[in-house]
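R.M. (postdoc): so does anyone remember the format we settled on? I'll just put the structure tokens first.
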């Protein structure tokens, strides 16, 4: 067993000195805000109830993009901002973001010129940070890039470029970047109440889930960045507050790479329900999604509806040959979108993906909406507001040019690339050549690294977010759980009962990702 790093983080988090900025929530918006604050030199603490990117932030379509469909909706400012941020993120985290070609297949004579014009506008909005220019491809070129595209009636298509990334690995990279710049961050530390004095929010109470002990922390500014759960925190200040959000869920299925063996993704610009659908190569698998289904309440583990799975597979079958069936699905995952409420009767496809910042009468700063691509801009805007409200010294934002932890342009092999410059250190640990399961690329050394350097505390933390086993092959990840539990127990000083409990808990969660 190595020295467990959690106690040092807990001691640092519970210092009696007030923090400049306390961020509640360890997803895209919370981590972006905390890194922004820490790099400006503000004393920054982040508290995460479960684990970094546990919710929506680990369940995206894995794209760093401007949003082609937002352009079709006329939201030019959102697209321009997102394309700018896409370029910055590729520059600042080259180990996590890569260019990917997307093919819009044309089966009608008018389709290629119609979509081609729109995508030229997309290129122009990206300006000097554009990746590659979009272009027309003929039938033969389209099939060379996507050999499993349905050939009957195919005229050609439009090829355009966006970014692809690993969402929860970016979250872990931001957590490490926060630590690199003096911030303190703690997971499995749910906020259970806000501290108010004279009607102002001046801190929070949180529980250490590993001991059950509660602690108080104080801060000059408190930011609620809990994604689809922001209303829960807002109700801690005022129980009668009106909900901000109208959440919807997006479902994705993951299948083997043989269904999309080329070097490009497929983008369907308009499905039967008016959305776009992607089939995207990712970690030697293919992610297909997504849906947009309003949900009445939020959940940590939302589940796909049978009709959503059917919709994705039915739409994929219109473009792919062979097309995946239910039997081919390795994993199903669901993310909830924190869409800000609009007028009654507005469907969730039409709600804004812009981020929103609201400050309550008691000074609680709530950030919600947005998407991974614009996480940095969300953080910058939020810290500007927080610093002004708290009377902190005005300091320039540095994150537009900030290289994130591990950043490297070195071409590392297969899945090691997401570690960036840490990869060589991971490979010095025991088990670097021992896989945790034959159907997965991950090694025992990575489990040890997750515990020692990346704050992994549970089997789920490892198999779902430090490694992406749960999303790539849910059943294989269940089979790997006992070995992962044993390694974690060795690293963290846990007993056999803890291991057994971890395997049970993980299996319960992972069964929801297996398509029956």
């Amino acid at each position: 067993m190595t020295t467990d790093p959690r106690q040092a983080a807990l001691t640092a988090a519970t210092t009696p000195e007030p923090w400049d900025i306390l961020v509640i929530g360890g997803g895209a918006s919370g981590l972006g805000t905390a890194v922004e604050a820490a790099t400006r030199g503000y004393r920054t603490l982040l508290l995460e109830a479960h684990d970094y990117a546990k919710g929506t932030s680990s369940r995206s379509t894995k794209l760093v993009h401007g949003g082609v469909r937002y352009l079709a909706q006329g939201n030019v400012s959102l697209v321009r901002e997102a394309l700018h941020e896409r370029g910055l993120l590729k520059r600042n985290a080259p180990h996590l973001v890569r260019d990917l070609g997307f093919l819009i297949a044309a089966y009608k004579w008018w389709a290629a010129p119609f979509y081609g014009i729109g995508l030229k506008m997309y290129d122009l909005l990206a300006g000097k940070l554009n990746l590659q220019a979009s272009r027309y491809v003929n039938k033969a070129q389209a099939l060379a890039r996507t050999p499993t595209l349905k050939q009957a009636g195919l005229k050609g298509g439009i090829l355009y470029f966006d970014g692809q990334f690993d969402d929860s690995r970016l979250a872990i990279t931001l957590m490490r970047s926060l630590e690199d710049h003096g911030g303190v961050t703690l997971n499995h530390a749910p906020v259970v109440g806000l501290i108010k004095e004279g009607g102002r929010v001046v801190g929070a109470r949180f529980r250490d889930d590993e001991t059950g002990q509660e602690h108080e922390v104080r801060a000059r500014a408190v930011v609620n960045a809990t994604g689809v759960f922001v209303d829960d925190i807002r109700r801690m200040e005022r129980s009668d507050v009106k909900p901000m959000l109208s959440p919807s869920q997006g479902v994705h299925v993951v299948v083997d790479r043989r269904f999309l063996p080329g070097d490009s993704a497929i983008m369907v610009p308009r499905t039967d329900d008016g959305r776009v659908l992607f089939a995207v190569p990712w970690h030697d698998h293919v992610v297909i999604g997504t849906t947009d289904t309003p949900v009445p309440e939020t959940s940590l583990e939302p589940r796909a509806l049978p009709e959503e799975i059917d919709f994705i597979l039915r739409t994929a079958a219109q473009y792919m040959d062979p097309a995946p069936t239910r039997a081919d699905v390795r994993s199903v995952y669901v993310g909830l979108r924190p869409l800000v409420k609009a007028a009654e009767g507005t469907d969730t496809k039409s709600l804004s993906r812009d981020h929103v910042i609201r400050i309550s009468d008691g000074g609680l700063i709530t950030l919600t909406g947005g998407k991974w691509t614009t996480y940095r801009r969300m953080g910058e805007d939020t810290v500007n507001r927080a610093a002004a409200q708290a009377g902190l010294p005005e300091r320039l934002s540095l994150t537009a040019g900030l290289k994130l932890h591990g950043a490297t342009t070195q071409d590392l092999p297969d899945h090691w690339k997401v570690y960036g410059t840490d990869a060589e250190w991971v490979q010095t640990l025991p088990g670097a050549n021992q896989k945790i399961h034959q159907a997965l690329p991950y090694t025992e050394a990575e489990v040890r690294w997750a515990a020692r350097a990346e704050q992994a505390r549970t089997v789920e933390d490892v198999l779902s977010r430090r490694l992406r086993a749960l999303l790539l092959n849910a059943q294989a990840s269940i089979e790997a759980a006992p070995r992962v539990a044993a390694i974690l127990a060795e690293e963290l000083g846990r007993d056999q009962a803890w291991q057994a409990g971890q395997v049970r808990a993980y299996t319960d969660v992972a069964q929801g990702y297996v398509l029956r």
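R.M.: ...and that's the designed sequence above, right after the tokens. Also worth knowing: Confidence is low (pLDDT under 50) at residues 343-348. The chain is about 35% helix and 20% strand.
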